[in-house]
TrEMBL record:
CDD domains per the UniProt record, alphabetical: DPCK
Native organism: Mammaliicoccus sciuri (Staphylococcus sciuri)
Lineage: Bacteria, Bacillati, Bacillota, Bacilli, Bacillales
Molecular function terms, GO-annotated: dephospho-CoA kinase activity
EC numbers on record: 2.7.1.24
Protein name per its UniProtKB record: Dephospho-CoA kinase
Similarity-based family: Belongs to the CoaE family.
Length: 198
């Protein structure tokens, strides 16, 4: 029977890379980030609601000004909650539809959800897989990827549950402290262990 797996991680732990590898192996990926972009795409109800809460500066060329919104919500938990209250219900509807379509075709589904534990979505999946790196690696990768200062990188990491707390909550851990080759091997080992090779 097809399984629904919740894939999560911390910011800059390499979850997107793991997601791509699993997609190459034949899993159907339902991606919360993609659904989030659809939820506030040009002309959407979601985008209109964002404008009402965050003002004119929240929109640039008819699209959500992600940099502006990010600069607010990573520092202000009340505004982050307001944004989540707009986007999350729309995202859930989009993702549920994609998940049902995949299950109807008998495919194993990876629900790629960065804030799976923060939003207490464990009960919506059969099991949870966490892409794990230690916090030092997280900070280093985030600084390199987004050209952030130590302070900015740490603020973004602090906006999520600490990675070691997530590690304790997850059913399976995919270690990504090593090389890309190591990561491929760790994923293969997990799939063999779970008898989930497609």
């Amino acid at each position: 029977m097809a399984k629904v797996i919740g894939l999560t991680g911390g910011i800059a732990t390499g979850k997107s890379t793991v997601s791509r590898i699993l997609q190459d192996k034949g899993f159907c990926i339902v991606d919360a980030d993609v659904a989030s972009r659809k939820a506030v795409e040009k002309g959407s109800v979601g985008l209109q609601q964002v404008k009402e809460v965050f003002g004119e500066d929240a929109i640039i060329d008819g699209e959500m000004n992600r940099q502006y919104i990010g600069s607010i919500v990573f520092k202000d938990s009340t505004m982050r909650e307001k944004l989540n209250n707009i986007i999350h219900p729309i995202v859930r509807t989009i993702m549920d539809k994609e998940k049902e379509e995949a299950l109807n075709h008998g495919k194993n589904v990876i629900m790629d959800i960065p804030l799976l534990f923060e939003n207490k979505l464990q009960n919506t999946v059969d099991e949870t897989w966490l892409v794990y790196t230690d916090q030092e690696t997280q900070i280093q990768r985030l600084k390199e990827r987004n050209q952030l200062s130590d302070e900015e990188a740490e603020a973004r990491i602090q906006s999520q549950i600490p990675i070691d707390e997530k590690k304790a909550l997850a059913d399976c851990i995919i270690d990504n402290n090593g090389s890309l080759e190591d990561l491929h091997q760790n994923i293969d080992d997990l799939l063999n262990n779970k008898a989930l090779n497609l």
